[in-house]
Amino acid sequence: MKYVLKKIVTMVCTLFVISLLTFGVFQILPGNPVDVILGVDADPLQAQALEKQLGLDLPLGERYVNWIGDLFRGDLGDSIRYQVPVGDLLKSSLPVTISLTVFSLLITVVTVIPIAIFLAKNNNKKSALFLSFLTQIGVAVPSFWLGILLIMLFAVTLQVLPSGDFIPFSEDPLGCIRSLILPSVAIAIGTSAVVIRYLKNTLLDQMNLDYVRTARSKGATQKRVLYRHVLKNALLPTITILGMTVVDVLGGSIIVENVFNLPGIGHLITSGVGNRDFPLVQGLVFYLAFMVIVINLVVDLLYMAVDPRIRLE
After folding, report:
1. How crowded is residue 86: how many other Cβ atoms within 10 Å of its Cβ?
2. Between 20 and 30 A from 56 (CA), which of 6, 92, 228, 307?
């Protein structure tokens, strides 16, 4: 219980630091929201009135207190570019990003275990070496570049999958899946390659431990030892890597969304930065940081739940 409380307190402190950094960075960035709305040639009195309306005339400390107070009430502010609450924009774009993240994670989870087991069982064989080489390429190539290659191959050349535009699941379930296949694969290739290499090395380390030799000496088959003991022990530390993978998938989806023209959070952030829409970008950055911290907390708690060797103080 003390460990859980310690993690929660750490999460709250981290969010406080992130709020300070997020607010402070956007105060020193060049560009004025008033100029974005009215233009640089606007009447000074009109600009002054709008500045007061937006609260930009207040001292920096008071603006931060007002902003953090609104955050606690669930108010992320109003977008300068779209003239609507940031929360409404987040609600409309979040399903796209979550759908892309879930699809990418499903592809990662489905492919990681069988490939890692194959590489560990056939270590140093030609087939395993070639597959291991492919995973190295997957780690090195950026997801947005993979996305461009996938568009050129499957959307432009073969014309079997769409190159972009999100179709809501409620309107066309099959169309929704088709629109997410290419961006999901673009994200999953890199993340899967990282987890595969880590799990493979963990499996190889476990195979050299004494308990494996003891089980084999008692007559247990290699397959039984691998699936009943080695894989179970190797998956425990992999949970941490999978938690980091979730964060990587979330970050990768923000970039890939722009490649495939998906109306998710990444598209909103790009639009907000380009239009100096600081309330929009501030709110989205803080929300994403909050999601990352919560994911890390869940991973820590999950690791504690599945690993009986951990003792809470």
Report:
1. 24
2. 92
Tell me the C-alpha distance between 265 and 284, whole Å.
8
Q: What is the mean pLDDT of each run of 10 residues along the chain (313 residues)?
A: 78 86 77 69 76 76 85 82 85 86 88 88 82 86 88 90 81 87 90 88 85 82 80 76 74 81 85 80 84 81 66 48
pLDDT of residue 213: 83
Q: By the 8 A CB rule, do 82 and 89 touch?
A: yes
Which tokens is 125 given? 């064989």
Match domain 88-312 to its CATH number in 1.10.3720.10, 2.60.40.10, 2.60.40.420, 3.40.830.10: 1.10.3720.10
